[in-house]
Design goal:
Helices cover 38% and strands 9% of the residues. By secondary structure, it is an alpha+beta fold.
């Protein structure tokens, strides 16, 4: 869905009540600047409201976009934010830690300096956590494949991380996309993966994925 399109949508469904979402990757929203502090600042309120409802109705839902749109309306006024919040089903709330995490990542995650690199970082939004743990968690990974392909592998059980076939929801492009590609050497890729993992842990209660020890991280960082 582009900037000028007003979506049509089916009746609201509480996808959060299902055991698992469909194994689909929606991809990035064309034309959206995921590095912007307020990526929806130019969108009018009616379009934001109808878009939130549409994104939530999808299976899997596009919670990243819906949450960023909600945060934009909340930024404009508490009343507009409250009105947008009512669009979210009780079992499919906005991502409570996304706004703070985006601010941290935007200030600290450097853009790619290796345009011909063969590695890609990615972050997957996953469900299965309590309200105390932020409802949702994040899985951090690195791959030599396109991130959408690797995400679908996780969702279909092909070399999948624990829990993602059932609890994986979508890629969180606003937490990694501009950092790709990264160098392809395995130890350097793992260093990037660990650095992003540790960065996200400062804002997200539940972060999973592989990391390397601090001494190995220091050695690998010297190579890039």
């Amino acid at each position: 869905m582009g900037f000028s399109e007003v979506p049509s949508y089916p009746p609201s469904k509480k996808w959060g009540s299902l055991l698992s979402f469909e194994a689909i990757s929606h991809g990035r929203l064309e034309g959206l600047d995921y590095r912007s502090v307020r990526p929806f600042s130019n969108w009018q309120r009616p379009l934001l409201m109808v878009s939130i409802r549409y994104w939530i109705s999808l299976n899997p839902p596009r919670l990243e976009l819906a949450t960023m749109a909600y945060e934009e309306l909340k930024y404009r006024s508490a009343a507009k934010g409250h009105s947008a919040l009512r669009l979210f089903p009780s079992d499919l709330p906005p991502i409570p830690w996304l706004n703070a995490t985006r601010k941290r990542v935007l200030s600290e995650l450097k853009p790619s300096s290796t345009p011909r690199g063969r590695g890609n970082l990615y972050v997957v939004l996953r469900s299965g956590y309590t309200e105390m743990n932020g409802f949702y968690g994040a899985y951090v990974g690195v791959t030599s494949h396109p991130v959408e392909q690797r995400f679908l592998q996780h969702r279909t059980g092909e070399k999948s991380a624990r829990g993602l076939p059932v609890h994986g929801i979508e890629l969180l492009y606003s937490l990694f996309s501009w950092a790709n590609p990264i160098p392809g050497a395995n130890e350097v890729r793992r260093a990037h993966e660990t650095a992003l993992h540790n960065l996200l842990k400062r804002s997200i209660p539940q972060v999973s994925g592989d990391t390397v020890p601090a001494d190995a991280l220091t050695e690998a960082e010297s190579k890039y």
